[in-house]
UniProtKB/TrEMBL annotation:
Encoding gene (name): NCAS0I02710
SMART domains xrefs: SEC14 (SM00516)
GO MF annotations, alphabetized: heme binding; metal ion binding; phosphatidylinositol transfer activity
Stated name of the protein: Phosphatidylinositol transfer protein SFH5
Keyword entries, A-Z: Cytoplasm, Endoplasmic reticulum, Heme, Iron, Lipid transport, Membrane, Metal-binding, Microsome, Transport
Amino acid sequence: MKFSTEQERQTFNRIVKALPLIIHDKCDGYDELYGYKLIPGDEEDGDKTYYNEEVAHGLIYKLCKAYQFQYDEIVQHVISILKWRREFNPLSCAFMEVHDPELQHVGILTQYPKHDANKKVVTWNLYGQLMKKKHLFQDVQKFLRYRIGLMERGLRLLDFTSEDNDYMTQVHDYKGVSMWKMDSEIKKCSKMTISIFQNYYPELLYAKYFVNVPKVLSWVYDVVMTFVDARTRKKFVVLNEGKKLGDHLPDCPSQSYGGHDKTHDLLAQNIELVKPTEYGLFILEKRNDETVE
Ligand code: HEM
């Protein structure tokens, strides 16, 4: 953790100290973030062993950084993030729910341990393949639960104790999108996804590549960009040709993306099995038991 000023360090320490009470009073005791426990448990809690201080502090540091070490703002966002997680149950999206196979086929997770810092975990969205499958966007909640599930599984591959691997990289492949009118349902799903990521997943994106974007569709980029905040925009790179991606992500498949891997295509690189953290599993089981009762 790097603090630029003594004041930043003090804000971080203040948040760490205040968090148990904030969580108790304002978040109904919900203390899970991306599968990890943010605060140590009480003696009476059965869940004490799930707390890992290094990970918890890594996550709290990220939250402080996201809101420029402004104490009140951090507190306000922590409350809204934890309340949202308690209600939306993103862990269930990632590890319990079964999503439409047509959606699942376009969401890929890859891991490249030799890549530069924070380009090691890559989430791929092959949205171009959905161009003629507009029915998949009709039910916004269904789409969101799929997309959030993919995000959470990607986060599971990060290491919040390492500065080299605590952000993710994302790719949107628009291959197949040619002349195209901005469909209102796709627009709605995109807008809501962007808003959820901005509000509840801060300080997690390192870079985002948009590949196979036909020049005639640059206007779509301009439209969607109006939903995106300035800090996130700076992380975007548009590549008209898919094969240029290899210059940025060298271990990606040679086929379609111009990387060094000539043996595996993207599907072969896909990491299908991602397990929840122990605490994530504990929370999922607890919620499941409550529903059954
Ligand atoms: C974001 C879908 C076409 C640019 C998104 C998102 C979705 C989506 C669901 C939400 C963010 C995410 O899932 O990570 C689609 C579909 C398209 C399409 C289904 C057509 C079949 C385009 C085109 C462009 C574009 C042609 C032009 C470059 C963007 C941008 C974002 C975005 C800039 C914001 C990304 C972010 O904030 O993370 N799109 N899109 N989209 N899309 Fe598209």
